Each structure stands twice: as C-alpha cells, then as structure tokens.
Amino acid sequence: MHIQSLSNPRLRARQRIQASVPPSRWSHNGQQVARLRQQLRQHRLTRHPAITRLASEPWSHDRCVRTHLEFRHVAVQPFTDALVMAQYLTRNLEPTLPPGAKMYARALLTLNTLDEFGFWPGVCEQGYYLGDPIRAHYPLFESVLESLGVDRLQRDRYAPSGAACAAREALESSYRTLPLVLAFLGVLEEVVQLYSPSLRALARGQGVQTHDGYYHVHGRNDDPDSMAFDTDHQDDLWCCLQQSLGLVAYEDVSTIVGHYCDCLAAFWDEQIR
C-alpha cells in the first residue's frame, strides 16, 4: 500500500461514510442535521451571558474553583465515556447499511479519541505514533485543578449542584442510542468552543498558566490562543450523525437535544447566579 493512500484520514473517513448511505437518505438526513445545528445555534446556550461574564467580571478564587469542579462533573469527566459509547453503538448501523460501514464512523471518531487520549499528530523517531496519556484532556484538566490548589480530597468530596447533576444525567441517558449520543457530543463540542476562551481567561486570572495544557487544546480551530481541533471534532460528529440519523425519528432527537441544551443553559445560569 502506497503511503499516499493513507493521507488525510479525516476526508477519507467522511467520504466513505457518505458512500455507505443511499444518496436520497444521505440528502434527507443532511437536511435534518442542518435543522438540528440551526436549533443549537438559536438556543440561548450559545449566547448565554456566562460567556462574557466568566472573562470580564472579577471572580473570587473559591468561585473559580467551584465553576471548574462543576464543569469537570458536567463535561470533562463524562466526555470520553460518551465518545467511546458512540464508537461502540455504531454496531447498530450494520443491519441497515453495508457490512463494515460502522468502521468508517469509528475511524472518524477515533481522530477525536486520539486527541482526547493524549496522542499528537506526527511520527516519533521510531516511526510510531506520538503521544503520552498524561497529555490526555482529562488529566490536563486535573492539572488545572492542581494549579488552583484543589487537592484530591476536595475533588472527591465535592457535591455538584442540582443543575450540574441534571446536565450530566441527561448526557448519560443518551448512552443507549447512537444518534442521541452523537448529537449530545456535538452540543458539548459547541460548548467547548464557545466557553473555553472565557474559562481560560478565568483560570488565567487566578494565576493558572494557560499557554500549555487543557486550555491550550480547547477552543475553535482558528483560536489564536490554542492548538485546538474542536471545530473538526464537531463536524466529524455531525457527519456520523448524518449517517445514523435514520435509527431514531428526527422529532425525537430534536426534542431530546433541546432538553439537553436547556439543562446546559441552566447549568451556566447556576454558575453566574
């Protein structure tokens, strides 16, 4: 196999995903995914006052710590659980799509998991992958908490707010249904892109170094203060959703995703109350 044929795995995976779905169904699902994305863009979650207040208002150290512990519970801890569940649930594609179609989605989702698990684009001196699990995003967030002076006991004893628990429970309720978990992950990627710059500024105001670590790898791809791939990740999730959307009625997905957005907006209400 020529090495050139292995280049641009993201594009190749997206192309094979599209080719695995009948054209009329791909077009129909694409229209529904576009409607879902528009629903997300119009939700108050995407223009919540917390986006500006996190970065512009003076926050005490204790309040900053609390918000980080809350965000840890809502997004950081369960994110890779949801991502791995999405990879597993692609098994449900096989009864209606060609054999092997689940692997195209798994390959595309793997580009997200590689970033989440601490791998880095490139090849080491042994001709193998670059990476270190200490650079996985969850451990990087734990390092932020360490910089904020939050010890292990404080983390273990922290009782999340009711709003934080409701948002996490909504996410975890999606783990049985592929289109739902993909859509929920797409929503979370939107949150990461919109809120990371503000959370970064909040942490920086408490003396946390943000030129490297968790906040350096989160945000939009065009964010000059980060080396993030979250825009690509979100587009990957929508592509996988377009492949799988027929497994659940669009109306059900729209309603349940709307509820999840409501839960996340209530979570941010709690943070600035």
Keywords summarizing the entry:
mainly alpha; 11 helices; 2 strands; two-stranded antiparallel sheet; globular
Give a verbal description of the structure:
With 273 residues, the chain is an all-alpha fold. Helix content is 65%, strand content 3%. The longest helix has 29 residues, at 61-89. 37% of the residues are buried.
Which helices and strands appear, and what pairs or packs with what?
Elements: H1 9-19, H2 23-42, H3 50-56, H4 61-89, H5 101-116, E1 119-123, E2 129-131, H6 137-147, H7 152-157, H8 162-172, H9 178-205, H10 230-244, H11 250-272
Antiparallel strand pairs: 1-2
Q: What is the compact description of this entry?
A:
It is built from eleven helices and two strands. It has helices at residues 9-19, 23-42, 50-56, 61-89, 101-116, 137-147, 152-157, 162-172, 178-205, 230-244, 250-272; strands at residues 119-123, 129-131. The model has no long low-confidence stretch (mean pLDDT 94).
Give the biggest beta sheet: 2 strands, antiparallel
Order of helices and strands, N to C? HHHHHEEHHHHHH
- Beta-strand share of residues: under 5%
Which stretches of 5+ consecutive residues score pLDDT under 50? none
Number of strands: 2
CA radius of gyration is 19 Å
Based on helices, strands and strand pairing, what is the structural class?
Answer: mainly alpha
Assign a percent range to the helix content.
55-70%
In round numbers, the mean pLDDT is: 94
List the strand order in the largest sheet. Answer: 1-2
End-to-end separation: 58 Å
Shape: globular
**What oligomeric state do the depicted chains represent?**
single chain
